[in-house]
Amino acid sequence: MEKVRISLTQAQMLIITSITASGHLLFIPAILNHTGRDSWLCLLLVVPPALLIAYTVSSLARMYPGQTVIEYLPLIVGKLPGKLFAVLFLFYFFHHALLSVRGFGEFFTIAITPDTPILVYFAAILSLAVYAVRNNLEVLARTNQLFLPIMILVGLSASILTHKDKDFHNFQPILEFGFEPVLQGTLTLAGLYGSFLLMSMVFPYVSRDAKSFKKSSLITMIILIVMFAGPLTGPVAVYGPERSIGISFPTFQLLRDIRVGELQRLDVLGILLWSLGSFGKISLYLYSISLGLSQLFGLKDYRSLVIPVAALIAINSLMISENFLEIYRFLRDTYPYYSNFMGLLLPLVVLLIAKWRERSKRKDGGDGDVQETAQTQTG
């Protein structure tokens, strides 16, 4: 086990950065495509599954303190099934890393510098991530603790500065196309929150007692839901439901179109926002994958795997799709079911098995005590 400790606040900030970074950049267009003007309803409907995800991950961490999901899976479902589940979860992390790196590169090549090869951005962000991860989790957590307030400040500034351009009549009529599009958008958002599973690789290194994980996880998830209110409603309020659906990066477009007197073209803030966020997210995934693989194969140190894993991420990020449109279609059509299965249903099954095993042990222990007492009295 890595001999580092981070605070509970630092752990919360890591997962907030991880989910909001790619969420605001990649997932908002997919959700808006489903829901249009009803996007705000997703924020209400996603609360139960999102809180269930947080409860599941934190409960497992509380039951198996000091162990990552890779370490406690064999204890819950058995050695061989545990290894299989571990491979599935590591693949889930790896796939999210691919989407994050590719999304980062596509953002720059589509919206900023179309003539620059996308591999340049892959190399830049992964080189920074490798440096951070090889220095251990504490360095990554402290760096993110410095960056996240800046990202939140940029987001709040964008929301305030665009308020004068918002027309809330754009959200009427409600449920014009029925409930199904809203359900699809909710599944997409819940799938994104499924990546909260990443906390199962961070909790063992939190200095606070495991009993505090459940409350903090639920609070963190509520914060995450609130942080998607502006990005989900802002584009519709400013551009209308029809135009907002056709924008590749609607939240970035909001920053680009801000006009406040002489203050114009604040897209540089968007570039700063997603660069810092993507760095935090990709670094955390690189750390989790490297650490998970080292635990799966019984290696003493994860650092030897960081560069090979980063290279695999770079190569596969390029191969994952031919263009951004394919990624967008995957996020819109397939991701909601895939991520809810991997990030919610599978961990929930693991938790139910763990609860059942715990109750069985207590029952067996209780029966044993009763039999021992009866034998003593008989004697």
TrEMBL record:
The chain crosses the membrane at residues 12-32, 38-60, 72-95, 107-133, 145-162, 182-206, 218-240, 271-293, 305-325, 337-354. Coiled coil: none annotated. It is found in: Membrane. Keywords: Germination, Membrane, Transmembrane, Transmembrane helix, Transport. It is a multi-pass membrane protein. Gene3D superfamilies: Amino acid/polyamine transporter I (1.20.1740.10). It comes from the Bacteria. Belongs to the amino acid-polyamine-organocation (APC) superfamily. Spore germination protein (SGP) (TC 2.A.3.9) family. PANTHER family: SPORE GERMINATION PROTEIN A2 (PTHR34975:SF2). This is Endospore germination permease. It comes from Tumebacillus lacus.
